[in-house]
Every structure is written in C-alpha cells, then in structure tokens.
Amino acid sequence: MGRWRIRLRGIGPVIEGKFWESDSQLRIGRLENLEVVLSDPSISRRHAEIVPTEQGWVIRDLGSTNGTFLNGLRVGRADRRLRLRDVIQVGNLVMTVAVLEEDVAPSQETPSKGMQVEAATQNTWEKALEVVAFDAARRPQVGDKLLTLLRASHHLTHIESPNDLFRSVLEDAVAALDAQRASIVLWNDATCTLELKMVSTGDKEVLGRKHFSHSLAIRAYNRGESLLCRDVSGNTELLMANSIADGAMASVICALLRSPRKKLGVLHLDRGPFQEPFNQDDLHLADALAASVSAAIECSQLVEQQQKNFLLTVSALANAVELRDAYTSKHTNRVTDYALFLADELGLSSLERRHIAVGTPLHDIGKIGIADSILRKPGKLTEEEFEIMKTHTIRGYEILKDLPDMGPCLPIVRNHHERWDGKGYPDALAGERIPKLARIVAVADAFDAMTTDRPYRPALPLDVAFAEIRDKAGTQFDPDMARAFLQLRPRIEEALHHPGSEAETVLPQVFNMNRKLVEDSEAEKNPRPRKPSLSGSSSTTIRISAPP
Q1: Predicted confidence (pLDDT) per residue in 393-421, tens digit
Q2: Quick check: pTM over 0.70?
Q3: CA–CA dist 362, 396 (Å, integer)
C-alpha cells in the first residue's frame, strides 16, 4: 500500500477553521496524546479513530458515550469508509473530510537504458478526472466541462443506490458551477407535485433554510425547458416568493431532468448575493449535466419501484404468518426493529441493512407449515412437538429459496436458531460459519422471546433479559454482537416505552431517503401543478427548451 493522506476541517461552533492532517492515523478524543484533541464535554477520552486500510480511509467508533456519526448515520465499531466531503460528527462537534487521497509509492522497476520516462501516474478513474479538472485549491479549471459530463455518464453504471447517485451528482454540480447549493427535485406522479430529494452545499456555509425555488422549478418542469434567472432582484414576483428570500438566493438555474420517455424533475442550482451571477455558459453546462445524469436517475427510479414491489410481496408473505399466529406477527415487527438497531450499531452497509429489513420479517415464515395443534398450543411443547416446530427453519427456506432476490436473505430464515457453540439447529453451525445476518437476528429474536408473554410463562424483566444476552455471549450468541446489543439498551427501552419513536413500519424505512429535507419543503408545495404567472419577458430569464 502506498502513502495515504487525509485532512479534516472543523465546521460549526468551537472548531470552525481548524485542520487536522495525517498520512497514518487520526485518533479523536480528549486525551492529550491523540492526534485530534477535542476538549469538549461531549467527547469521550478515546472517542473514534480514522485509519487507512486496503479499501481506503475508514472511521470507527471506540465505544464513545455520545456516538460517532457519518453523514447523519451512527458509526459502530465496524469500519465505515470515508469519501471526500463526508461530514463527521463526534459528540457535539462537526468536521468534514477536506482532503482524501492516496499517493502511490514510487515504482521499484529498474529504468530501461533505452527509454527515458519523464513522468508517470497511477490513479483511480475518479481521481484521474479530479486531478485534471481541479487546481490545488479545488477550484474548477478551464476545460472541466467535458470532464464533468464524463463523470456524469459514469454514474449510470457505478452507483449502487439512489441516495449515492443524488449525492454524487450534486457534489459535481456544486463544484463545477461554483453554486452555493444544488438540489434534485423530482416529479411525484402520486401527489402531482415536485418533491425535494436531496440537497448539497459542498463544503460551503450556506445561509437560509429553503433549498429550491418552487415557482421557478415548476415553471421549468411544466414548460419542459431549462431556465436561468441571472438576478432575482430584477423580478418583483420572485422577490416576493418565500423560498427565494429564505434561501438567500441571488441567481438561479433550473436545469430540466429528462429522458427520451418523460420529464423527471429539475436540477436546481443557486448562488448567493456575494457571488457572481450565473451566465449563459453556466446554463448550458447545467443543462448538459442534467441531460447526462437523467438516464441514471430514471434507472434508479425504476429499480426503486421494483424494490418496493418486491417489499410488498414480502409484506404479503409476512401477513400470511399473522393469519396463523397473532403473536408471530407482533414478534416479527419487534425482531426486525431490534435487528436493524443492531445493524446500525455494527456499522453495516445499506445493502446489508436492506437484506435484514427484507429477511427478518420472514424469519418465521416456515410456521405456515406447522399444524395449529402445535403452533397455537396454549402450553409448553413436548419434546416431539418441539422437534416438529424446529422444522419451521427448513420449511421457510424451502418456501423462499426459488424467489428472485431472496438469496441474500435465506440465511436469516434458515439459520437464525444456530448457536455460537454449534448446538443450534438446523445445521449445527458454529462460530463464524453461521452467516453474519443470521447471527444478528438470533440475538434480536432471543431477546424478544424473553421479553414478551408466552402461553407457558410471563415476560422476563428487561434487566434479566439483558443479563441473559450478556451471560450467553460466546455460547449461544456471537460475543461481538452480544456486546453491541447491550450498548443498544437505551435505544431499545425508548422504543419499548414509546413505540412511535422508532420504526414500527420497518420496510418502508429502507427507502425513505432524506425525509427531513422532504418535510422541510412541504410548505412550498402546491396541491396541484399549475403554471405560475411569472412574466416570460423579464430580461433576467433565459430558457433552453428540451423535449419531454
């Protein structure tokens, strides 16, 4: 591995303007011997650390009291990879990744006597474009327009989720067009209005709480054209719009997002009062960028809809268990919540979280095949009856194994009753031979079974249940997962005492991206689309028409 470099920049109160840089590690906490010393009461003595790995720079929490968050999501002890402009929160303090790069070690080859090599480089695809497109201060250089568009086409095949896609597009747009803010606003056929999906400000400090001009965005969408408003001060009607004033917008571009099949929405960019206004070249670049990324956005929408349809199928299957056994239904919801909590604490990827959200509601689906005389028996099962009940793991696996997209979820269904010591069922797997997601659900499943009333015994007190998880670590449960689950006690107690405070409808959560940003924009939305009465003759407005 070559030499790595990372720089963190403090943002917000207390540490704004401070920098920390390293090519080996950055340990964060209150101790004086650490690389990032933060003497704030919200910071633990050894709070978190950032280190280089073969996969790149990663961050992990060190068991802090107030937690470590990456882009708003809590980081556990598992590694979470960092990207340029990621936002890190430790306690109450916030910093951003200002520089993130690997300097490849010099080649060890012996130069050929007959060949003179002036220079050489070895970069990733993205890094190679970045080096050409930006100067040392990360300002776009002349000629970066083509590179921005090339980068946009890269999104189509290299982005794993809509969230990642939106974020990457907006970061490029802010950097290439020197915008103070960029937003993606997409049309929702169900509500017949434009909905804010994501906002990015790069590393800029931006005033105002509104993220886009609804009036200009709906006008661009309805007319099927990209719009430039150089100076909003020249348009009285715009000045009266709450979003313009509350967002501290002085110059606006609304670039139409469209595919050959339909209009998708708007890429909204704005500059503040202390920036140069956008010009026609900016409009053309924004329009080309919007056209380039629209295919990727449309694909992400189709994939998301396919996933939602799949989840509806999952919900229908889970409901089939509910019809047989009311306890199983409520138990399934709680176990899914606990498993997702544990996934957060362990720092699992969004894909792994989705597998848990899909697979856990179905972990007892095999009980459909268990006779009512056993499934609904009011007393304790006999040894023979228990052996039959144990077959629900195999039955569930057989029901789901041929369903498309269920492959990664099958270990949850089949192996959630395996034990760390190998004494579980149905396959008597031990240790790390048990699939990771099954080990997570095993802890969540056992905890809920202990803390709820059963026909043959009352629920155990929480103290007793948590003690049981602790005592069975290394025998029944994966010890690392048991310890992580114990750390979740405050969150679990909050969910039990106030059920609405966490997710009772777990499946929709997986796809509910940027809920807060969407809610912030609700006040701006019109109930039905209409063409605003903005004058089209204003000298500050320029249009680029685009086919729907």
Answers
A1: 999 999 888 876 788 899 999 999 999 99
A2: no
A3: 8
Q: How many CB atoms lie within 10 A of CB 307?
A: 17
Instruction: Write the pLDDT tens digit of every residue in 351-393.
Output: 899 899 889 988 988 888 888 888 888 888 899 999 999 999 9
The tokens for 32 are 């004086």
**Which residues, including other chains, have CB under 8 Å from residue 273's CB and lie 6 or more apart?**
248, 250
Where do we find the tokens 């709820």?
452
Q: Of 9, 80, 76, 72, which Cα lies nearest the Cα of 50? A: 80
Helix 162-177 to helix 280-324 angle (10° resolution) is: 170
Helix (H, G, I), strand (E, B) or coil at 441: helix
Place of tokens 């929702």: 188
Element (DSSP H or E) covering residue 428? none
**29 by DSSP, 3-state: which?**
strand
Measured in degrees and rounded to the nearest 5, phi and psi for residue 68 equal -120, 135
Q: How many CA atoms lie within 13 A of 189 on its CB side?
A: 5
SS (H, E, C) 323-349: HHCHHHHHHHHHHHHHHHHHHHHHCCC
How far is residue 457 CA from its own chain's centroid? 41
Residue 37 bridge partners (DSSP) = 29
Task: Answer whether 517's CB lies under 8 Å from 209's CB.
Answer: no
Q: Which two tokens stand for residue 525?
A: 């939305």
Taking the C-alpha atoms of residue 409 and residue 401, their distance in angstroms, rounded to an integer, is: 9
